[in-house]
Amino acid sequence: MIDPLVSLRQRIEDAARAAFGDEAAAQDPAIHRSAHADYQADIAMALGRRLKKNPREIACALVDKLPADDVIATAALSGPGFINLTLQADYLGAQLGQMRADARLGLPEAAAPQTVIVDYSSPNVAKEMHVGHLRSTIIGDCLARVLEFQGHKVIRQNHIGDWGTPFGMLIEHMLDERAAGGEASLRELVSFYKIARAKFDGDAAFAERARGRVVLLQAGDAETLTLWRRLIDVSVQHFTGLYDKLGVSLRPTDVAGESRYNDALPGLVAELEQAGLARPSEGAMCVFLPNFTGRENEPVPLIVRKQDGGYGYATTDLTALRHRVQALGAQRLIYVVGAPQSQHLAMVFATARLAGWAPPSVRLEHVAFGSVLGPDKKMFKTRSGESVSLAALIDEGVDRALHAVQTKAPDLDPATQAGIAQSVGIGAIKYADLSNDRIKDYVFDWNRMLAFEGNTAPYLMYAHARCRSILRKAGADDVSTTEPPCIEAPAERALALELLNFVTTVDKTAESLQPHRICQHLYEVATAYAGFFEHCPVLKADEPLRTSRLRLCHLTARVLAQGLALLGITAPDQM
Ligand code: ARG
Predict the structure, then answer these.
(1) Average of per-residue pLDDT values in the chain
(2) Does one domain contain both 171 and 156?
(3) Does 243 reside within a domain?
(4) Which end of the chain is less congested by CB atoms within 10 angstroms, N or C?
(5) What's the rounded Cα separation, in Å, for the pair 304 and 290?
(6) Where a domain ends, among 304, 336, 367?
(7) Per-residue model confidence as pLDDT tens digits over 291-334
(8) Quick one: 152 and 184 in the same domain?
(9) Residue 337 CA: which ligand 1 atom is closest?
C-alpha cells in the first residue's frame, strides 16, 4: 500500500506495545502533516489518560522505541508529548518509484469487487434540467468514477421522473400542438411544461381532457403510451445533450425511470401488508416505523398506497431498491439526492431492511447535499426569479473561461483557446461544487470558481499544464523509466509527501462518498508543486538532478490529471 502513514502507524503501534504492553498498542495514533517535521504523531495524551501517566514520559518512551530504520529517519519528542517524525529520503523515493511504475498510481484493484448502484441526476421528464439537478449529476458522476477506478462494478441508474398526473396535461398539450401543425415547441421543454400547466389551470375543458388522459395512461391505452414515450424520448435526448456537454458519463442506457417499476407496485404493497409491515390508515396503506416521528412526536407514516389507490415516490423507491438488490445484485446502493429527502430515504431504507429486501450485508447510503445559493445567499435563481437553466449556465461558464484564457494565453491559436475554455469553464463549475463539503450549501460565484489562485479548477489545471510544459521543453514527455526520483530539497520532500497521499485519498473518498477529499488533496499537491517550481530549478539543473526532477514533474502531472479525471474534469496540456 502506497501511503507512508500505514508504515508509520504500524511502527508506532509496535513501539507502544514494546513500551507499555498489548493494551497500549490498541491506541490508534493521530498523525498529521507538520511544519516542524514530515509528520507529527499525537498519541501520548490519549495513552497518558489511559495509562494514568504523564504524556511527555510516554512520548519519550515511544521515541526510544522508534529508532532510525528503512522508513523512519528521526523520531523526536515535541511539546507536551507529540512525536515529530521525519522519513528516510530513500524510502520516499522508492514509494514514488512504485507509484510511477503503476498505471493506477499505486491504487490496488479492489480485492473483493462489489456491484455498486449509483442513483444520480434523476431529472423529471418534460421539464428542462435546472441548476437543482446540477449537484446530484456532478457529485454522482464523480462517485461513480471513483468506485469504478477502484475496480468495482458500477451500475449507473438515472431514476428519471417519467410517470404521474402531469403527463395527462403534457400529452393533451402535445396533441393540441400537433393539431396546430407541429410539435416544435417540445424542444423548448421548459416553456412546453409551462404552457401545458397554464392551460390546465386556466381552461376547464383542457383540464378535463388532461384528467381523462391520465386515466388512459394508467390503463395502458396504446395510443396514449406512444405519445407518452415520445415525451420521454425527447426529454432523454435533452438530458443526454447536457450530459455530453458537461462531460457526465450517464448514457441513455442508464435510464431506469420511475415508470419501469409500475407493474410491480401492487404486489410489493401486498407483500408489505402480508408481512404485517403495512396497515390501512385513513384510507391509505402505510408503513409505521418506530423511530420516525414528526415535530409533535406523532408517528410519520411511509405511505405506500394513497387514499385514491395511486402510488407515490415511496413505493417506486422501494420497488427500485428491491430490484437493484435482487435482480441487479447490488451490494452497495448509493442515492445522490438532496438533503431535504433525508427522512424519505431513511424510511425507505428502514422499510427495505424490515421487509428483508436489503440484508445487513448490503450497504444503503444516502449521499445528501445542500443547495446552490445565489450571491444574495438565497436559492440560486435568475434575476427574474426563475430557476437557472443548466444549458445556459454551462454556456456562460465556457464564455467567461474563454475571456480568461484569451487574457492569460493570448499567443495560443483561437481553436486551442476554445478547447481550453471548454475544459476550464466546465471544470470550474464542477470543481466549485465538488470542492465544498457536499452537505453544506454553497454560493455560486463565477469570479471565485474561475480564479487562477486558490482551491479552484483553473489553479489545478494550470499546475498540470505547467508540469506538461516543462516535460515538453525537456523533450521528456514520456519519462517512461520507473526509476525513483531523488528526494533532497525540502520542496521536493514536501511535494513527495503530498503525492504519496493519493491512494489513501481515493480510498477515503470511496468510503465516505465525499468528493471534496480528492479536491483538497489535489489542491495540496498543486500548492506543493508551486513551492517546488519556485525553489527547485528543473531544466537548468545538472544531471542526475535534472532527470530526477523531471520524474517528479511527470508524476505530479499524472496525479493531477488522474485526480481531476475522477472528478469528471479534463486537464488540458497547455494553458
Ligand atoms: N426525480 C426526483 C427529483 O427531481 C429525484 C429522484 C431521486 N432518486 C430517487 N431514487 N428517489 O426531485
Answers:
(1) 93
(2) no
(3) no
(4) N
(5) 17
(6) 367
(7) 898 888 888 999 999 998 889 999 999 999 999 999 999 999 99
(8) no
(9) 7
Tell me, yes or no, whether 179 and 156 share the same domain.
no
Q: Looking at the predicted structure, is the pLDDT value of residue 480 above 70?
A: no
Ligand 1 atom nearest 161 alpha carbon? 1
- Cell readout for 293 is 416521528
Q: Return the pLDDT at 383.
A: 74
Distance CA 116, CA 331 (A): 6
Q: Which of 488, 497, 490 is nearest to 3 (CA)?
A: 497
Q: How far is residue 535's CA from residue 494's CA, in Å, rounded to a whole number?
A: 12
What is the Cα–Cα distance from 518 to 506, expressed in whole angstroms? Answer: 7
Q: Are residues 197 and 134 in the same domain?
A: no
Q: Is residue 108 part of a domain?
A: no
At residue 213, does pLDDT exceed 90?
Answer: yes
CATH number of the structural domain spanning residue 465: 1.10.730.10
Distance CA 157, CA 134 (A): 16
**418-460, pLDDT tens digit by residue?**
999 999 999 999 999 999 999 999 999 999 999 999 999 999 9
Tell me how far apart the alpha carbons of residues 190 and 187 are, in angstroms, rounded to a whole number. Answer: 9
The answer to whether position 404 is within a domain reads yes
| Residues 400 and 289 reside in one and the same domain | no
Question: Grid coordinates in use for 103?
Answer: 498505471
Residues 153, 170 within the same domain: no
* Per-residue pLDDT, 128: 66
3 state SS of 48: helix
Domain shared by 300 and 394, yes or no: no
- Cell numbers describing residue 378: 438565497
Asked if residue 225 belongs to a domain, the reply is no
Strands 299-305 and 284-293: what pairing? antiparallel
Contacts of 30 (CB under 8 A, 6+ apart): 41, 42, 43
Task: List the CATH number of the domain containing 157.
Answer: 3.40.50.620
- Residue 9: enclosing H or E segment and its boundaries? helix 4-20
Which one of 337, 345, 351 would you pick to mutate in the ligand 1 pocket, going by the greatest count of ligand atoms within 8 A of its CB?
A: 337
Of 122, 321, 323, 364, the residue with max ligand 1 atoms within 8 A of its CB, to mutate for a pocket test, comes to: 122
Ligand 1 pocket, mutate which of 159, 313, 323 (most atoms under 8 A from CB) = 159
**Domain limits for position 314:** 115-161+259-367
User: In which element (H, E) is residue 138 found?
Assistant: helix 134-149
The residues pairing with 340 across neighbouring beta strands, listed in sequence order, are none
Q: Phi then psi for 396, rounded to 5 degrees?
A: -65, -40
Q: Residue 391 above 80 pLDDT?
A: yes
Tell me the β-bridge partners of 240. none
Name residue, grid cell 420516525. 292
What domain count does the chain have? 4
What's the CATH number where 30 sits? 3.30.1360.70
Are 416 and 526 in the same domain?
A: yes
Which of 72, 87, 102 finishes a domain?
87
Residues with CB under 6 A from ligand 1: 119, 122-124, 159, 161, 317, 335, 337
pLDDT value for 507 = 97
- Closest residue CA from atom 12 of ligand 1: 123
Type of residue found at 84:
N
Q: Is 279 helix (H, G, I), strand (E, B) or coil?
A: strand
